[in-house]
Amino acid sequence: MKGQYLSPPVDDRQVWDAWLSYHNLPTMLAADEVGLFDALADGPLAVEALAGRCNVNARALGIVNSLLCALGLLVRREGRYGLTPVSRHYLVKTSDFYWGALLAGFRQATPSTELIVAALAPDAQHEGGENAKGWEAGEIPAERARHIAAFMHAHSCAAAIGAAQHPVFGEVKRLLDIGGGSGVFPIAMAQRWPHLRGTIMDLGTMCDAAMHYVREAGVADRVDTLAVDMFRQPWPTGYDALFFSNVFHDWNDETCLLLARKAYEALPPGGRILLHEALVNDNLDGPATVASFSLLMLYGTQGQQRALPELAALLDEAGFVDCEAHATCGYYSLTIARKP
Ligand SMILES: C[S@@+](CC[C@H](N)C(=O)[O-])C[C@H]1O[C@@H](n2cnc3c(N)ncnc32)[C@H](O)[C@@H]1O
Question: What kind and span of H or E run contains 292?
Answer without folding.
Answer: helix 288-300
